[in-house]
Amino acid sequence: MAKEVLVEVSSLTRLFDVSKPLLNRIIEREGRQLLRAVDDVSFDIVTGETFALVGESGSGKSTVAKMVVGLLPPTKGSIRIDDIELADKTQKAHMREMRSQIQMIFQDPFASLNPRWRVDKIVAEPIRAFNLEPDDAAIVERVGSLLTMVGLGPSDGRKFPHEFSGGQRQRICIARALASKPEFIVCDEPTSALDVSVQAQILNLMRDLQDEFGLTFLFISHDLSVVRHMATRIGVMYLGRLVEVSPAKMLFKAPKHPYTRMLLDAVPDLEMSGRDRKPVKGEIPNPINPPSGCTFHPRCPLVNDRCRKEIPATIEANNSIVACHAVEEGRLE
Amino acid sequence: MSDQTAPQIDIVEKGMLARALDSDIFFSFRQSKIVMAAAVVTLIYFSMALFAPWIAPHNPFDLASLDLMDGLTPPAWEEDGVPQFLLGTDDQGRDLLSTIMYGSRISLAVGFASVAFAAILGITLGLISGYFGGFIDTVIMRIADIQLTFPSILIALLIDGTVSGLFPESRREDSAFWVLVLAIGLSFWVQYARTVRSSVLVEKEREYVQAAKLIGLKPLIIMFRHVLPNVLGPVLVIITINLALAVITEATLSFLGVGIPVTQPSLGTMIRIGQDFLFSGEWWITIFPGAALAILVLAVNLLGDWLRDALNPKLR
Amino acid sequence: MSQPLLQIRDLVIEFPTRRALLRAVDQISFDIEAGEVLGVVGESGAGKSLTGAAIIGLLEPPGRIAGGEIIFAGQRIDNLDHDQMRKLRGKRIAMIFQDPLTSLNPLYRVGEQLVETIQTHLPLNNTEARERAIALLDEVGIPAPVTRIDGYPHQFSGGMRQRVVIALALAAEPDLIIADEPTTALDVSVQAQIISLLKNLCKNRGTAVMLITHDMGVIAETADRVAVLYAGQVAEIGKTQDLIKSPKHPYTSGLMSSIPSMESDEDRLIQIPGSMPRLNAIPQGCSFHPRCSKAFGPCTEKRAPLVDVGESRAACWLYAAENGNG
Predict the structure, then answer these.
(1) Most buried among B24, B69, B187, B196, using CB within 10 Å?
(2) Is A229 on the interface with C (CB under 8 A)?
């Protein structure tokens, strides 16, 4: 199979201005404060795969998701989808077409549906916006088949969102995302608001739909077991930086970056297999004032002087990318 | 899954009315006797105002039918009272009951028109301010802040004075109504703008708005189709409470003599006229319009308070 | 064996609404022994938090205890008045909430809140109480407690705040701590720290814990025994090891297999069809039967009694029938 790159993200950076109001700054003699939510992140997503970004709060994974779909402009860097630069305003005609190719599934199924609209109107909105069907009858039919596809019925279209459970709402969100026949769907923690038994249904549904339509997913999550189940390749983020990118199997079998190892150790041992684990230490520092050098160094067991001063560059080694001095110097056991 | 949700289908297929009668708001309405009484009183006022020309015993605006000899007749149950004038007459010989009916008509008309004006202006500015943010937001909100530092009655007086000064003396009586609407409307918009802005700030971060953005809808469409309907709840409450306030403001302005002219008295104008006679024993000219005003405002306010509680999910 | 620390017998919690009387908790019974950690798992709306709130007397109206008994250390506590309950709460039963940010008062220093709690329940003067507060902070793993004690909650990170909350709960040496989703608001790496802290502290002091969570992982790490709730009823209760390795109730086994595994690879997760019924539409018979692949005759008619199955107890007709109707 030819591996065709669908999404190409390079040197993506996003700053947020978290300064106090002008008057306070003048009185308190403080400068502007910038939060580096995403710092120099690059990755590719191949057509048909599920690329997952994992990380804890403040890692910038959701900010990446928002930039990739175009909800948030990047401060620096580029996002190319199907070889079209997302920020390029000169290609307006392309943009419109591309918009229909990118969709998003959100975390909170209770906030992602307009509470005053009936479900059929919600699902039909993208169809109408992109003029995908010739007339109303065709739209009704398409909405019906979309709802059936996600495991609901056409008659559910007459109901309002509040009449559905969380899992059913997430199904509606998926139907809406599929309505414009996209190639690429960004899923921002799609199951973290759901109960486990419902989570399994939604994950299965997403995989089935991916197989059926050849969808490409960017999957954002903090739950390693979910990511392990869904992803082809995984990127691990820490404080706005991508610290490791590996094929899913490899990441779980042979994690390289000390942070990845720590994350894996923190996963509760559900099988009660008595797997060997090291206690996790420390917490994520305040992203407004991150540590110098490698931002992970205060919590890292392999820290040395170089880690405290120098930001590690990414190194590539058999299919995976890692940004760590210890790995580079071979200090890793 | 489908067998679980099946019983709810019939509820959905019922019409709007059935759903409204089934709603939590209607339920809380029926729970409180005071609210129901307030609604009845408000309804009586509205129909009185609407149908005044047909149900009022006299037409107080028809100068030809007035007889100065009927002036200052006390209410029917007092010593010199006449059954023809149930609540007595004023100094011009106008029947008080009819004047109150016509007066509430004017008061309510001013109230509705100015609230509508204020609401439309405020909602639009609030939407723009909240949705676009940045410089435009700062400008609108600073103007609002500055206006809030003055009492609204002062602003209404100022606008009323300025605008009516623009009209020639002869046209003033005709323009009085619209000048009042403008004055009261402009002094009330801030509340709408602030409320809508803060709701918009919350709603626009909601994921359904982001989903709409993803489809590439234009900001204006997103604002009116998605954001606006979801911020109207609190606005409805303000509208109700403001209606009472607008009626009072109109009465105050008319009482101060800058409102509705004496020839077509509103409730406020009547209270002012009656005030001259209060100490000479003709108490009814002030007391009846005053009571009418108080009851109307109280009823509308009670409705507004109830609506605020009913729409507040935390108190449910 | 001596009497359990906490006994819950046929507890019923109801919510009167205008349409119907909703039964959020329907005849739940379980015990907690002194010093043990009982995990209570269930999906949202299963009634697990309500049960916890009912024990500590913090059920929010219109919810009310409509039946059953709660017996704490041999004394019935579900019918205590406000004053008696207040004396019990904090001193002998403490609570840890989900969000550490909202369970601390942002306007008071951490030390002030600790000292206040200590002095409410123990006869100590200011210096003694402060010393005790520092010792507690040290015990929950807050570095440099002597200086940190004068910090405000916002100066603490999420994990550190939850440690302070645990210190507050431990302040009066309670016999039982009700922990309602204590780690849900925390990051994965911090979660593990808090779990092991809570577990070790309670082991050392012999404090019993009722650990309410939706996360089976947390239960596996911490609990001695687990109660699985479904639609306001106990579906299964047993030793953690037994319940995870050989679940008896079809709901428990469905729940366990729907969690993506960290050890094995599967293409599709095993899923339970449908979702938990809403309180106003709980099916007749066993409330799980419409979603159950093993449902048969009696399941649609009558609720299954909780019967012994091996080491565990499960409420399922698969076993109840064998036992001759329990």
Answers:
(1) B196
(2) yes
Contact A75, A13 (CB under 8 A): yes
Chain C interface disruption, residue of A170, A196, A222, most C CBs within 10 A: A196
Record: contact C281-B3, CB cut-off 8 A: no
3-state secondary structure of B249: helix
Are B215 and A108 within 8 A, CB to CB?
Answer: no
Q: Which residue of B has its CA nearest to C273?
A: B1
Q: Supply C87's token pair.
A: 């004396």
CATH number for the domain spanning B51: value is 1.10.3720.10
Q: A7 pairs with which residues across the strands?
A: A45, A81
Predicted confidence pLDDT, tens digits, chain A (333 residues): 456 889 999 999 999 888 777 777 888 877 788 888 999 999 999 999 999 999 888 889 999 999 999 888 899 999 988 888 877 766 667 777 788 889 999 988 888 999 889 999 999 999 999 888 889 999 999 999 999 999 999 999 999 898 888 899 999 999 999 999 999 999 999 998 888 888 999 999 999 999 999 999 999 999 888 999 999 999 999 999 999 999 999 999 989 999 999 888 888 777 665 556 677 777 888 888 889 899 999 988 888 899 999 999 888 877 889 999 988 888 776
> Is the CB of B211 less than 8 angstroms away from the CB of A104?
yes
Subunits close to B (at least 3 CB pairs below 8 A) = A, C
**Residue in B8, B213, B230 closest to A71 by CB:** B213
Domain ranges of chain C: 245-260+281-326
Contact present, B27 and C18 (Cβ < 8 Å): yes
By the CB < 8 Å criterion, does C274 face chain B? Answer: yes
**DSSP strands (E only) in C225-282:** 225-230, 233-239
| B17 and A CB contact within 8 Å | no
Sign of CA dihedral B37, B38, B41, B42: negative
Give the mutation candidate from A63, A101, A113, A114 for the B interface (greatest B CB count, under 10 A).
Answer: A114
- Considering only CB atoms, which chain C residues are within 8 Å of B24? 18
Residue of chain A nearest C273, judged by CA positions: A201
Q: Whose CA is closest to B270, among B280, B259, B281, B279? A: B259
C228 vs B114: CA distance, rounded Å: 60
On whether any CB of chain C is under 8 Å from the CB of B62, the answer is no
Q: Which other chains touch chain C, taking contact as 3+ CB pairs less than 8 Å apart?
A: A, B
Q: Helix, strand, or coil here: A80?
A: strand
Domain boundaries defined on chain A: 5-253, 294-333
Contact C271 A168 (CB under 8 A): no
Query: pTM of the predicted model, to two decimals?
Result: 0.84
- Determine the residue of chain C that is closest to A205 in CA distance: C268
Any domain includes B259: yes
CA distances from C169 to A215, A246, B94, C92, C204 (A): 49, 43, 76, 10, 15
In a domain, B316, yes or no: no
Query: Which residues in chain C touch residue A200, judged by CB atoms under 8 angstroms apart?
Result: 258-260, 269-272
Q: Which residues are within 8 A (CB) of C71 and not within 5 positions of it... i.e. 6 or more apart?
A: C6, C7, C8, C9, C77
Give every CB contact of residue A34 below 8 A, 6+ residues apart in sequence.
A15, A16, A17, A18, A19
Residue C172, SS3 per DSSP: coil
Q: Does C204 touch chain B (CB under 8 A)?
A: no
In terms of residue numbers, what domain contains B148? 25-311
Question: Do the beta carbons of residue C158 and residue C191 sit within 8 Å?
Answer: no
| Beta-carbon-side half-sphere exposure of residue C128 (alpha carbons within 13 Å) | 6
Q: Does A222 touch chain C (CB under 8 A)?
A: yes
Query: A5-253 architecture in CATH?
Result: 3-Layer(aba) Sandwich (3.40)
Q: What is the ipTM of this complex?
A: 0.84
Domain count along chain B: 1
